[in-house]
């Protein structure tokens, strides 16, 4: 069995040892006759634009959870699986928990300036509602970590399917949910249905003092509306890990806005040590005719 690896140049050195260890029975290569490959391991930045010649390929396994850069490729007719990896989920839960605690504890309210600031005692976690947009793999992992601290959790998903420990609503209830969202964590994929979902009107529904944490995708939020809202203190602060253009251009107003924290798309990495065995298991399933896990729904785009 022959597996084609297609990702940005630097990824090969990082991934090849872990993938070879996880797939000792398969031949892993970065190039070769497309018709000779049985599967593709894919991440953005690679050299495959046309999937048509890969006639034998039974599975394209993405190393990324977000698949917006490949799902719309009209030449891709082979099954596409996204990455669901315990390391990725833990990384995202830790990122969201860290920034949520910064918001919750008011960590920005103190400076080493000689002023003895009293009176700003934060509520305990059980009195601080946290809202998560997106109740998928990463939303659920984040909810589990925040729930362990004691935050009451509300979630939004497309379907509204129940999640233990979270009051989940379908997206139709978004407006009402935003009005109660003191800390809003956004973990939605980039699809036609989620683009600009947080527009000026919806941002204005947030309660005073609300924080937005967005490690999902940058297309979710209307940038100009967010900046205008931040200027008026609603939301009070935005922690942004993902952007419409990445890297975020040096002259983008997010860099200089005092109520914005920019992180450079580092919320959750797919780590070879945990993700290579996941990819290997799925490749073996595909190549032995078993149902593939974490298949992307092409119509929905995630
Ligand atoms: P997932 O398991 O596919 O979950 C997606 C969730 O979004 C589901 O709960 C889904 O609802 C919901 N959803 C989809 N469209 C919606 C809509 N229009 N309105 C409301 N809810 C909607 O994805 P995941 O693994 O949790 O990953 C989420 C996203 O995180 C990825 O797509 C990627 O963009 C981003 N990500 C970022 C980083 C980073 O480092 N910044 C790393 C990894 C991933 P249903 O449950 O009803 O289907």
From TrEMBL:
GO molecular function: NAD binding; oxidoreductase activity, acting on the CH-OH group of donors, NAD or NADP as acceptor
Source species of the chain: Paracoccus liaowanqingii
Keyword Oxidoreductase in record: yes
Transmembrane regions listed in the UniProt entry: none
Domain D-isomer specific 2-hydroxyacid dehydrogenase NAD-binding: 102-267
Protein name: Glyoxylate/hydroxypyruvate reductase A
Keyword Cytoplasm tagged: no
Annotated SUPFAM superfamilies: NAD(P)-binding Rossmann-fold domains
PANTHER family recorded: 2-HACID_DH_C DOMAIN-CONTAINING PROTEIN, D-ISOMER SPECIFIC 2-HYDROXYACID DEHYDROGENASE NAD-BINDING DOMAIN-CONTAINING PROTEIN
Stretches assigned to coiled coil: none
Keywords noted in UniProt: NAD, Oxidoreductase, Pyruvate
Top-level lineage group: Bacteria
């Amino acid at each position: 069995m022959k597996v084609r690896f297609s990702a940005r140049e630097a990824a090969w050195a990082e991934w090849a040892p872990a993938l070879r260890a996880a797939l000792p029975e398969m031949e892993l290569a970065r190039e070769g006759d497309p018709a000779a490959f049985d599967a593709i391991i894919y991440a953005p930045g690679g050299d495959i634009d046309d999937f048509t010649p890969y006639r034998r390929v039974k599975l394209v396994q993405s190393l990324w959870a977000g698949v917006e850069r490949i799902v719309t490729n009209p030449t891709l007719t082979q099954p596409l699986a996204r990455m669901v990896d315990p390391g990725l989920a833990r990384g995202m839960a830790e990122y969201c928990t860290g920034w949520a605690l910064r918001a919750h504890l008011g960590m920005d309210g103190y400076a080493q300036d000689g002023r003895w600031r009293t009176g700003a005692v934060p509520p305990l976690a059980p009195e601080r509602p946290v809202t998560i947009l997106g109740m998928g793999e990463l939303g659920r992992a984040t909810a589990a970590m925040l729930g362990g601290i004691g935050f009451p959790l509300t979630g939004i998903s497309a379907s509204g399917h129940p999640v233990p420990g979270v009051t989940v609503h379908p997206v139709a209830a978004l407006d009402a949910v935003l009005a109660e969202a003191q800390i809003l964590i956004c973990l939605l994929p980039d699809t036609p249905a989620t683009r600009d979902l947080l527009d000026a009107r919806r941002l204005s529904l947030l309660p005073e003092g609300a924080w937005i944490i967005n490690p999902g995708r940058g297309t979710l939020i209307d940038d100009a509306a967010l900046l205008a809202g931040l200027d008026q203190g609603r939301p009070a602060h935005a922690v942004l890990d993902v952007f419409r253009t990445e890297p975020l251009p040096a002259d983008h107003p997010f860099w200089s806005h005092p109520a914005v924290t920019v992180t450079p798309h580092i919320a959750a990495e797919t780590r070879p040590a945990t993700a290579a065995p996941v990819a290997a298991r799925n490749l073996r399933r595909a190549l032995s005719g078993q149902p593939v896990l974490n298949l992307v729904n092409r119509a929905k785009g995630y």
